[in-house]
Structures are given as C-alpha cells and as structure tokens.
Amino acid sequence: MSKRAISFFTVLIAAVLFSSCSEYYKIQKSNDYNLKYEKAKAYYDYEDYYHAKSLLDEVVNVFRGSDKAEESMLLYAYCHYKMRDYTMGAYYFDSFCKTFPYSDRYEEACFMIAQCYYKDSPRVDLDQTCTQKAIGAMQTYINKYPQGEHLHEANVVISEMRGKLEEKSFMTAKLYFKLGEYQSATISLKNSLKEYPDTKYREELMYMLVKSNYLLAANSVENKQAERFQNTVTEYYSFIDEFPESQYIPEIENMYKQSVDKIKNL
User: Fold this and answer.
1) Tens digits of residue pLDDT in 121-169
2) Among the four residues 82, 98, 128, 179, which has the most C-beta atoms within 10 Å?
3) Domains of the chain (ranges plus CATH)?
4) Which residue from 120, 157, 160, 165 is spatially nearest to 140, judged by alpha carbons?
5) Which residues have CB under 8 Å from 120's CB, separation 6+?
6) Taking the model in full, what pTM does it have?
C-alpha cells in the first residue's frame, strides 16, 4: 500500500472517530433519556462499554420505577462486568436482585454476582476474601437453583476456589515453617490439616508438623522440652501410620530417636 493510500485511510479513520465522538457528546448533553438509553444499548452491542456506562450513569436513576428500570439496571451491571470492574459489577447485580426479586432474569443476576467475585479472585499469595465470597455466592446460587442453567459451572468454580484456598493454607503454614517460627507453624499446620483433611499436600504438611514440633522442643527452655518432645513422638507415629513408605522416613526416624532419648534424660 502506498504512503498516499495509508495517509488517506488514516484521515478517514480519524474522521470517523471524530464523528463518533461528536455524536456521543451531543447525546450526552441531550435531555432525551430514551435516546440516551437506546444509544447506550447500541454502544453496548458494539462492545463500547465505556460510553454505554457513561450514558447509563444518568439513565438508571431517571428510569427508576419505570418499565425500563429492570433492563437498564441489568445492562448497567453488565457494563461494569465487561469493563472488569468486578467490585461494582457485583454491587449492581446484587442491587438488581434486591430491587427485582421476581424478575425473569433474577437467576441470571444471582449467578453473575458470584461470577464477579470469581473474576476478582486474586492470585493465591494475596488476600482471598473474594475467593471466599465467590464460593459463598456460587453456593447460594446452587441452593436457590439446584437444577439451574449454570449449575455445572457453579460447581466447577467452587471446586477451583476451594483448591485455591487449600493452596493458600498450605503456603501460609509452609512460610511459618521456613521462617523458623515453629510454634506458629505447628498451629497453622494443624489448622490446614483439619480444614483440608484430604489435601494433596497432606504428606508434606504432616512431615513439617513432626519437624516443627521437634525443632520447637530442641530450642525450648528445659521445663517445656519434655512435653514438646512428646508431641514430636505423637506426630511421628501419626505420620508413619499414614505414610510408611515416605521419602521423609529416614529424617523423621532420626528425630523420633533423639526425642525419645531426650524424654528419658529429662
């Protein structure tokens, strides 16, 4: 393509964009809210969620109580969702459910609340409040609609989010262990095993629990050592009962023997 042709198309695109912006500002300044609403829907269909939302900012309140209130509020919630503002998306889907509890689209909005929390769930090393909210909201949806359209998807999300919380629990316990905070580690490790008894990390968690108890005892004042070495022995028996062929057996056997010797001497 020649430079002249490229220049022509550049000018043409600029003209189209300018015309589009001019049209938007004219609509925005208008007092015709029905026109604003129709244009908002058109922008939404063209995936221009920013301009759609901007027009709906006014329309939603004006249409409150009218025959267009339900559709406009749901569209407004979807604009936030499509723009990846999941916090506000969840808020407006929830507002829709509270305002229109008998709507034909209530189930859809109920599911979308959970979907917003799911999309807002961060990586595993960050705070998992949204992950927990996603599980709760998906479970609420399942309870309300046990044969619902999104039942399978809701169950998949719950499983995925629980896996993330399980990994978060494991990482937290392991961090205490690595930092040498063995008392906190023993508490965190036990909590993780209690909350997720079938976790894929069970062997490693139980190994760290034996070793945390042993190192905690070894570094304790004398009057606390007997009890803490006994805890090591108890956790050792639990471990070998479940994982008799574990790669960790030689190491924890040594900790067990030293713990028994310490108990005898004390």
Assistant:
1) 999 999 999 999 999 999 999 999 999 999 999 999 999 999 999 999 9
2) 128
3) 7-80 (no CATH), 84-178 (1.25.40.10), 180-266 (1.25.40.10)
4) 157
5) 86, 87, 90, 130, 134
6) 0.83
